[in-house]
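<instruction>
Derive structure tokens from the sequence
<data>
Labelled lines for chain and fold:
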Amino acid sequence: MMTTLYAEMGKFYDQGWLDVPRGVTTGFSDAGMSGMSYSKKFWTEERDPARRYGQYFHTQYFGGGPQIAKCTPIETYIKVNMDAMFQRGDTQHMLLAMNHLRHQQLEIRGIAEMLWDYPGFDPREYLARYCREEFGEAAAPKVAALYDAYYEKHPHTMKNDGFKTYAFYHKVMEPMFTIIANLHNIDVGTRDGFALSYDYRRDVYEKGIRDLGEVLERARALRPEIPRERLYFFDYEFTDAIRLVRGLYKLSIATQDAIARLKDGDRAGALAALLDARPLAEELYAAFRNQCGTDKWRHWFRSGTNQDFYALYNLYQKARLRLEVDAMSFVTDIEPQRHPYLGNVVTDDAASAGDAVYGSQVERHDPSFYNGSLHSLTVFPLRDVFQIGGIRSVYSKWKGKHPAYVSDHGLSYRFRLDGRATVFVAKPKGTTLEWLARDGFKPTGQALSVGRWGWPYRYRSRPPTATFDFDILSKHFPAGEVTLGPNAKDEQLPYIVFIRPSLLAVENFRRDAIGAAPAGWKISGRGTVVDVPDYDAEMRPSAFDLSTVPRYPTLPGPSVSASVTAFSITRTAPQQPANCTPSPAKIIGVGERKR
């Protein structure tokens, strides 16, 4: 039996709160991509010969490193940590976390050989032998040199934590999530310059694009010498991995620049920034599609990362389209402006029970990159409505960082309707907002409920710790500006706004001739197929504004239909497994919703 001193457990062990029973292996744990250890006693505690010691070690750490591609070299990272373990005699048990088995084959095998014969392990001999066995005798020396170049040029620093010196590679996975959120910001009309910038280093990214570009050219030049049966794996290790990383670096830069220019009202400059990233963004998506191109590896990314790539590429196209043409959004210019991770904005699919409130609605693009919301709808009687949700509270670490980091207490909502709509305001039951009656809002006789969950918020298999009921009032508005009254200034829950537009807006991808109805769709009455050829891709149907189509549950999704008085659109598609490639179709239509 082994106990694992992971995260806070290591700190509690250091503070004397934990006592490991005799006969149980004391398992020290690494601290993410910094390596050993969460517990300082790993370094300082004298080992008791009567006790047993082991390790919990990550070959790569989801949430702490590049993760999209290799980042844990044998010599400067893995062996440094294994040396520390062996030098202290922590060899009773090894619990090895691999995260992505596919791009850790070199590393996992190296760890195994170290564990079996630590004194005899030579990292240079191992790399040369691995390359011979994987890529053939003739190409092996060049492939080994390519691994060295990859690890040298992949942006990293050498760190010393007081106990060891190790290679630390700049993160890629978490910045990918912020790119998605920033693209979403652009799509919903960001104007205040707010951009998520987790671990953003422009100088590092620009250098990484250049340096890894050199390695990419070397890899492409070496491809003809790689045995055909190993070429796909070679591309995975080098060609495609580098294209993914360079694309993410470039999109990070592009979204930061675009948001800064939108703050200055420079829409053309913002579009130019996104278009500048297009070659590397297309390379990124081609690399992703290539590595998901076989049945064996169709779903290889973990924790929804496949979906993250689809969302990233969809939103990149959508953000460009937003800057090139007038938006089809039925609600614009929302004030106070809200952003992903901070508060909800009107999104691409109708609100329903289970949706977050007072938290990020960008979660609905893919739950793998957002940790859930404290509050969610549990009972929701409205249909065909879209949420403008606010902010109930702000983390202390965010306060004062940006004007957007404020709660809704005492603030009023303003927004522009691009067509006739019904506006619903849900207020906590038993509270009074005097402006509602004064401004003509009438009770609907309906109520919704909001549940509150403790950490971790995203796991909803248990009931909420508290439930709050809301009364719903409504009012019809013509197109134009709408100004609502203020929220209460105290700590009661802010009101929640829902919009039911009378205008039906439908967008989708297509793979058909311009002006022709895509296969599987029927259009009757006054309907027109509109095409933007630059935006064709193998995408989720609901990536663009689908004002009447439910959120995608799969690719391409179950039967979808929408009926309107002017014309009707119907598509029927067979249910397919999640993450499969849809048959792209693009339809844009407008009409009045049937009552």
Notes: Confidence is low (pLDDT under 50) at residues 361-371, 505-516, 525-595. The CA atoms of residues 22 and 51 lie 7 Å apart. Residues 2-169 form one domain.
